[in-house]
Amino acid sequence: MELDQIVHDFARAMEAADSRKPQAMSSRTPSRRYQPGIGPFAEDEAIKKTLTEMKCGNAYYLSAGKLQYPQSRQTCDLALGDPPDWAIEVKLARVGRDNGTYEDAAIKKILSPYADDRSAVTDCVKLAKSRFPCRRAVLIYGFEMEDRPLIWLIQAFEAVAASHARLGSRVEAPLRDLIHPVFNCGGVFAWELLSS
User: Fold this and answer.
1) Which of 44, 128, 150, 153 lies at a C-alpha separation of 20 to 30 Å from 170?
2) Do the beta carbons of residue 192 and residue 136 sit within 8 Å?
3) In the chain, how long is the greatest CA-to-CA distance?
4) Is 8 helix (H, G, I), strand (E, B) or coil?
5) What residues contact 125, with CB distance under 8 A and at least 6 apart?
6) Are 90 and 80 in contact (CB under 8 A)?
7) 68: phi > 0 → left, psi -120 to 50 → alpha, else beta; which?
8) How far is CA 137 from CA 30, 80, 86, 193, in A?
């Protein structure tokens, strides 16, 4: 399966998960629920919900799950194929909050060059150094925010990541007609990591 198809399948599955009107709970105030939609969910939970939909639509995704890095306790977010022919690290680019205010920490989660921040940039480095015997990619999904276009963050990621790893061409698919009033549209973007 090619990365372009995976990205489109991920986007359609995320839209399907969103259409079920899931409601995330606040990690800080457990009694508080966010407004319905996939947008407020933490990255791991959003990936799980998206994978559930992907598995319903295509047998290729039935074995999808996490993949342990060789000689490490760390895991890669998404392994596709059996045996895996893709190892994909996934990151959430959410520059806003459920109430429409800005979430500045999101930029760090995409652009930080420091390993402790576990950013999309450091995921590139980790994947490039891994000994996975399959193709490798980084996937970023995110939501549009007024006055903070998602594409600007994606372009900044490409500029920073290029100094740390060799990326293939960007592939992307839109996220449309989402039910959350703030996280109502966005996109899914991915790049294959190429050998040096």
Assistant:
1) 44
2) yes
3) 49
4) helix
5) 115, 164, 165
6) no
7) beta
8) 34, 11, 7, 5
Cα distance between residue 153 and residue 155, in whole Å: 5
Q: Got the DSSP string for 167-181?
A: B---EEEEE-S-SSS
Q: In which residue are the tokens 């919900």 written? A: 49
Contact 55, 63 (CB under 8 A): no
Whether the bond between 83 and the residue before it is cis, its omega within 30 degrees of 0, is yes
Q: Using one digit for the tens of pLDDT, what is the confidence trace for 9-65?
A: 999 999 999 999 999 988 777 778 899 999 999 999 999 999 999 999 799 999 999
Mean pLDDT of the chain: 93
Per-residue pLDDT of the chain (196 residues; tens, 9 = 90+): 999 999 999 999 999 999 999 999 887 777 788 999 999 999 999 999 999 999 997 999 999 999 999 888 899 999 999 999 999 999 999 998 888 888 888 899 999 999 999 999 999 999 999 989 999 999 999 999 888 899 999 999 999 999 999 999 999 999 999 999 999 999 999 999 997 5
Any bridge partners for residue 90, and if so which?
139
